[in-house]
Amino acid sequence: MRIVKLSPQSLAFPSPEGALRDPNGLLAIGGDLTPSRLLAAYERGIFPWYSPGEAILWWSPDPRAVMFPAEHHVSRSLKRFLRANPFRITLNQDFAAVIAACAYRPDEGTWIGPEVQQAYLQLHQQGHAHSVEVWQEDKLVGGLYGVAQGALFCGESMFSRTTNASKCALMAFCRHFAAYGGELVDCQVLNAHTASLGAKEIPRRQFLQLLSHLQRRVLAPECWQSQVIPPHPVEPPSPTN
Questions:
Q1: Is Transferase tagged as a keyword (predicted)?
Q2: pLDDT tens for residues 23-75?
Q3: Ramachandran category for residue 109: left, alpha or beta (phi over 0 → left; psi -120 to 50 → alpha)
Q4: What percent of the chain has a predicted confidence (pLDDT) above 90?
Q5: Residue 231 CA neighbour count, 13 Å, CB half
Q6: Which long-range contacts (CB under 8 A, 24 or more apart) does 110-114 make?
């Protein structure tokens, strides 16, 4: 197994099965972040991740962290929190602000540099990348963004500036996505935070099989229209005697 250097004249990627085991999933180096190359990568279960100023690295880890939206569990404490209705949650109303907020990590550093932000903003303008925004009054306090592949959503990053904001963004998105036929959210690599939100690991081969099946599904255009997403399910009124 070796890292493949991408050709600037071709959008071809090597098979994910050839990715390194250490570091887990490293597959290729080079290329660019044009919309066509990014889409070619996501269509094959590959994503970019690298430090600003360095060569672009392309990954397809094994195992893969995923979340099944229909199975997303909301804890009792979060349900109680939501009853207070502290947030307004929207879809595709300020993608640029969301990705900029995801990039702002002064204590950790970030891979989401200006080049990356511009690349995904182009994907958003073309209808491939989407954002969820969490508002407290008129202030953006949380959100997430990623790339759609039919009935699969490739989550890229999320942020939170107040308690439970990112959890509420993900919960509301999972419910909305599932309602339109979405079946899988790609979380890429499992960590303590994604695990606490319900992500689990599956073999890369299984993920690629699901990707091949789900990316052919076409969701209704209304799924991705700019809109308000209810922060919690609308419950029917209690029956009266």
A1: yes
A2: 999 999 999 999 999 999 999 999 999 999 999 999 999 999 999 998 876 66
A3: left
A4: 77
A5: 23
A6: 110/52, 111/49, 111/50, 111/51, 111/52, 112/157, 113/52, 113/53, 114/52
The 3-class secondary structure across 31-63, one letter per residue, is: CCCCHHHHHHHHCCCCEECCCCCCCCEEECCCC
Long-range (24+ apart) CB contacts under 8 A made by 9-12 are: 11/36, 11/37, 11/40, 12/40
Q: Residue 236's pLDDT band (boundaries 50, 70, 90)?
A: very low
Listed residue (94, 93, 231) closest to 167, CA to CA = 231
The SS3 assignment for 155 reads strand
CA dist., res. 108 & res. 127, Å (int): 30
Backbone CA torsion sign across 149, 39, 111, 141: negative
Burial group, residue 202, by CB count within 10 angstroms (0-12, 13-18, 19+): middle
Structure tokens at 80: 């109680």
Q: CA-CA distances (angstroms) from residue 9 to 12, 41, 180?
A: 9, 15, 37
Q: Report the predicted TM-score, pTM, of the whole model to 2 decimal places.
A: 0.92
Dihedral angle of Cα 122, 128, 134, 138, to the nearest 10 degrees: 50
**Measuring CA to CA, which residue among 176, 120, 110, 111 is closest to residue 147?**
120
